[in-house]
Task: inverse folding
């Protein structure tokens, strides 16, 4: 298998700040698959698809356009393991191609650059599933996660692009690891992140807690995600809910599961940094 592809890895804000184990897992996995990840030099927040978009659409678009123009200067496409960043760049490219004159005027005046519409943006799932392919990924596996029982939360930004079947790719790649996927009926319910910006209590009450309650009923060893914002919310939600309603369900990125299957140890990945310990799940797999 020779892939020999190169992308700018756009990590977003949350992964470097709160989930270094996700970045490490991604570097290990893509390295094993022969994919080179270039650094996003000079780039800023994507920007955030919820807060920034609502506060100023023009600022959101120009900031996204600047990041995209920087990628074009380097002649590389973007790859992101963040649902929010993928949403921002996908929507921004669409709008800029329709009517990017004003945004380009701002870029030209302030940064001496323009967006030309040449760069493409890929979700990490697309690169894994469509560029590399499940069989080529499985060929790199040295262990199975058979016996691990998981629930999956795809995230609303992922579900927005039905035609790309990103949620299906998340499920298929999780199954590839040997994990057993448990259904709980609220897979499509938002984790609560956007509502957190308005009312944290309501976000937990109306979004996060109902999901966690349903998950707890099926008794998973872990919650599998690909979105760092959802990852953070499902961890934080468990820690915010009163002590008499304990969940203790670790939230694990698909990229971490793939890295484990490729033979990397939990310490290689940095899984000891999870806020909700992964020890029980890892012990079940005989990895600690």
Result:
């Amino acid at each position: 298998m020779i892939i020999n592809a190169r992308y700018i890895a756009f990590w977003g804000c949350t992964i470097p700040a709160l989930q270094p184990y996700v970045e490490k897992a991604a570097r290990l996995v893509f390295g094993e698959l022969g994919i080179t990840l270039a650094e996003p030099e000079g780039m800023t927040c994507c920007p955030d698809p919820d807060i920034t978009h609502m506060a100023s659409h023009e600022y959101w678009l120009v900031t996204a356009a600047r990041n995209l123009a920087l990628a074009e200067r380097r002649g590389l496409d973007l790859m992101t393991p963040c649902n929010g960043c993928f949403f921002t760049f996908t929507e921004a490219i669409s709008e800029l191609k329709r009517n990017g004159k004003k945004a380009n005027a701002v870029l030209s005046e302030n940064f001496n650059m323009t967006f030309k519409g040449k760069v493409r943006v890929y979700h990490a799932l697309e690169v894994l599933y469509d560029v590399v392919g499940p069989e080529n990924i499985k060929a790199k596996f040295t262990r199975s996660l058979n016996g691990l029982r998981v629930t999956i939360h795809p995230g609303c930004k992922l579900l927005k692009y039905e035609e790309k079947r990103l949620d299906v790719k998340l499920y298929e790649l999780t199954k590839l690891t040997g994990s057993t996927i448990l259904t709980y009926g609220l897979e499509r319910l938002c984790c609560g992140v956007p509502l957190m910006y308005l009312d944290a209590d309501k976000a937990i009450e109306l979004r996060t807690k109902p999901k966690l309650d349903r998950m707890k009923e099926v008794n998973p060893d872990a919650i599998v995600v690909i979105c760092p914002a959802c990852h953070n919310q499902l961890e934080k939600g468990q820690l915010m809910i009163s002590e008499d309603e304990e969940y203790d369900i670790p939230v694990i990125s698909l990229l971490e599961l793939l890295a484990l299957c490729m033979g990397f140890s939990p310490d290689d990945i940095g899984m000891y940094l999870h806020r909700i310990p992964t020890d029980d799940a890892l012990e079940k797999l005989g990895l600690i």
